[in-house]
Write a structure and sequence with these properties.
By secondary structure, the chain is mostly helical. Helix content is about 80%, strand content about 0%. The longest helix is centred in the middle third of the chain and has 49 residues. It holds the Pfam family T2SSF.
């Protein structure tokens, strides 16, 4: 009981102290970054903990891994600040796990094993949150793979109708989906750069870096290598690329179907067991009777 009480109270006091110091030092910190924060209202406390204990310097491998994931999801802008906010969010979540575990252990009679589980859960929290970032990256790349062939097909139609590459790219972007679609958000940024008279090679290079995936690199490289030539050769290259991207979309759709089927296995087994129990229970009761 004493161990659990110390664990819970110590973690709670640490949270209060970090919140008080962080609110005073980082009271004007932005919390509207696109990165996901589970404890957004406690963001100053997490940022203070990272700065005060030099967490990024003490654990450089973890810091680099977080920054890589942030860069893959949200681009190169404000990467360091968002990485510190995410790392602080991990620390605060781990402390809250310790507080809740201690309270549950006290309510359950003070079993010391609960304290061990709390420490283990707090240690696993950053790893689980990293896995969540990896899952977000996979979903983002999957959506880009599924949507990119449609954009390329629109571009081919417009270029075939006489539009320039820049105009075709601008008209292919659905502005109503910029906030909901990762691909159209990236293309929306590219369109803004084109409208500001940034050169097409620079725009496509930045687009490829922001997306950081093979399909987008193939898309931008094909355009850069062939757009100056123009004519039928350029359209042939784009059609060949479109065919390859549609094939990749089909493979990704097939994978989605397989994953959906595998997720249905457990519910079907559970339903089968319930039906078996309902059917067999009268026979079992009659034998016992």
């Amino acid at each position: 009981m004493l161990v659990l009480l110390c664990l819970s109270m110590g973690s709670f006091l640490a949270l209060l102290l970090l919140y008080a110091l962080g609110s005073r030092r980082f009271k004007d910190v932005r919390t509207d970054y696109p990165c996901t924060l589970h404890m957004k209202k406690l963001a100053p406390a997490g940022l203070y903990a990272v700065e005060r204990f030099k967490t990024m310097e003490r654990f450089p491998d973890a810091g680099v891994r977080i920054m890589q994931r942030i860069r893959s999801l949200y681009g190169h802008k404000d990467t360091l600040v968002m990485a510190k906010l995410v790392m602080g969010d991990m620390l605060l979540t781990a402390l809250i796990v310790l507080v809740l575990t201690g309270l549950l252990g006290i309510a359950g009679g003070g079993d010391p094993a609960v304290a061990l589980l709390g420490v283990l859960g707090a240690g696993l929290t950053p790893w689980l949150m990293l896995r969540q970032l990896d899952q977000q990256i996979r979903l983002r790349k999957r959506r880009i793979v599924l949507e990119l062939p449609e954009v390329l097909s629109k571009m081919i139609l417009l270029i075939n109708a006489g539009e320039t590459v820049q105009k075709a790219l601008i008209r292919s972007v659905d502005t109503s989906r910029v906030g909901a679609s990762p691909l159209h958000a990236e293309f929306g940024q590219a369109v803004l750069e084109l409208e500001m008279n940034v050169s097409l090679p620079k725009v496509l290079e930045d687009l490829s870096k922001r997306c950081a995936m093979q399909e987008m690199a193939l898309f931008t490289t094909t355009i850069l290598l062939n757009y100056r030539r123009g004519g039928e050769d350029f359209l042939v290259a784009l059609r060949s690329l479109a065919k390859e991207l549609w094939d990749r979309r089909k493979a990704e759709s097939r994978k989605l179907g397989e994953e959906a089927s595998s997720k249905l296995v457990f519910p079907m087994v559970a339903i089968f067991l319930v039906v078996m129990i309902i059917v067999a229970s009268p026979a079992v009761l009659s034998i016992n009777g």
